[in-house]
Amino acid sequence: MTTATPVKTEYEVIIGLETHCQLSTATKIFSSSSTKFGGTPNTNIDPICLGMPGVLPVLNEKVLEYAVKAGLALNCQIAPYSKFDRKQYFYPDLPKNYQISQYDLPIAEHGWLEITTNDTEANPKRKKLALLGCTWKKMRENLSMLAVIDFPVLPIPSWITTERGFP
User: I want to staple 29 with a disulfide (CB 3.0 to 4.6 A). Which of 5, 82, 85, 157 is the partner?
Assistant: First the structure.
């Protein structure tokens, strides 16, 4: 019987997570359309959701309020100025071919969260808390090649927290 020889390395294990949280708002992140789930497909929709030419998205005030509260709860620095970016990419359930999200100037950043379990304490660092509108809801039936897209569900207001520091 052989035994494993311990290997010494100079590496430190650091686990990073990206967590998406859906916000409980009555309307979508950039339009006044309802976020009610489970209704008839393609009813809670408007030109802003579809990215029609000439539309101008307006940020939902409740989304901003929730983001600031979450940022404070996570001990983040709230930015005096933040901005949204338009990420262009093709995705099967994103017909407008872009997503509006925060990238380099998020609403909150440099936070931490204290976690204690089994007498072990960790303070994972929150790199940023950024707002975004998620993509649509794609439904498949019987794993067929036919996909049905339900436009009224999204873009649901969401935030992303990125963190590192789980040793």
Answer: 157
